[in-house]
């Protein structure tokens, strides 16, 4: 099994997935493309939701596309409809989940512009 950094890089390199989604996959216990394939898009989305990430059906499209090396927007309409249906069922069965809030970036205090002042 690859280490976390290797898994992050491998997952982020898949079509439709970036570093943020790859981190969410790791948080959900998914470390390889083989695990994505084993569980499928809907189960992976369920696991990411349970890990506290704000996942939508578009994530299911992205995962499906990662597995088939297809841009998520080019997935056939019939497959998207199937994913929508299964995603809705999964969300209903899962019930309310606690979504993690992303840490806010610390704002830097605003300093007045330097230079001559008006009198």
Produce the secondary structure layout:
Layout: H1 4-12, H2 19-27, H3 33-50, H4 57-68, H5 77-94
Write structural notes for this entry:
The chain is an all-alpha fold and 119 residues long. It has one domain: 5' to 3' exonuclease, C-terminal subdomain (DNA polymerase, domain 1, Orthogonal Bundle). 55% of the residues lie in helices and 0% in strands. The chain has five helices and no strands. The chain has helices at 4-12, 19-27, 33-50, 57-68, 77-94. Helix 3 (33-50) crosses helix 5. It is globular, with a radius of gyration of 19 Å. It starts with a helix and ends in a 25-residue tail after the last helix. 26% of the residues are buried. The mean pLDDT is 89.
Main sheet record:
none
Report the radius of gyration as a whole number of Å: 19 Å
CATH architectural label: Orthogonal Bundle
Total count of strands: 0
Uncertain segments are none
What would you call the shape? globular
Count of distinct structural domains: 1
Strand content: under 5%
State the distance separating the first and last CA atoms: 69 Å
Specify the structural class.
mainly alpha
Number of alpha- plus pi-helical segments:
5
CATH topology: DNA polymerase, domain 1
CATH hierarchy, class: Mainly Alpha
Q: List the helices and strands in order.
A: HHHHH
Features:
119 residues, mainly alpha, DNA polymerase, domain 1, 5 helices, globular
Task: Give the structure's gist in a few sentences.
The protein has 119 residues and is mostly helical.
């Amino acid at each position: 099994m690859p280490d976390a950094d290797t898994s992050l890089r491998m997952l982020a390199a898949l079509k439709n997935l970036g570093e943020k989604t790859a981190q969410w996959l790791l948080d959900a216990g998914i470390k390889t493309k083989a695990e994505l394939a084993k569980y499928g898009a809907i189960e992976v989305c369920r696991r990411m939701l349970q890990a506290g990430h704000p996942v939508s059906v578009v994530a299911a499209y992205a995962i499906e596309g990662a597995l088939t090396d297809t841009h998520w927007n080019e997935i056939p309409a019939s497959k998207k409809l199937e994913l929508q249906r299964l995603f809705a069922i999964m969300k209903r069965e899962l019930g309310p989940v606690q979504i993690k809030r992303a840490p806010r970036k610390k704002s830097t205090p605003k300093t007045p512009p330097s230079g001559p002042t008006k009198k």
